[in-house]
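Table S2 (text version). Query chain:
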Amino acid sequence: MPVTWVIVADSSRARFFSLTSRTGPLQELEGMTHPEGRMRNQDEASDKQGGLAGGHGEGGHAFEAPTDLKHHEAEVFARQIADKLEHGRVGNDYDKLILLAPPAFLGALRKALNDHVANLVYATVDKDLVAENEAVIRQHIL
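Corresponding structure-token output:
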């Protein structure tokens, strides 16, 4: 029986579901979290060390822009999800994928997928549904 994995994610959390038929229930398999993806801009700024890079007036700051750090953390988490999807592909755990994520994170996730996994993506939904219940998620995939 063909199995579809439904991945619902954002930059700090991912939920993995299994779907075996269009009318069957979504079965939640597991989840992943990435607390770094949840950092607020002020947390990112306060965790960085100030001052000049090199310390001798070279003109560069050791500070990285918060949006760059947030984008980097999203890419890191997208790669972690992609690795899990590759592991599932190799283990023949699913036949198709449906990805649901906010637009920016969906782009990062697509970019992180290798060609083998990307070829199994059946549908994508650019919506933030990671905190929603299974009934709401199901409405968006059928």
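Notes on Table S2: The chain has one domain: 4-48+62-141. The beta strands are 4-9, 13-19, 27-33, 96-101, 121-126.
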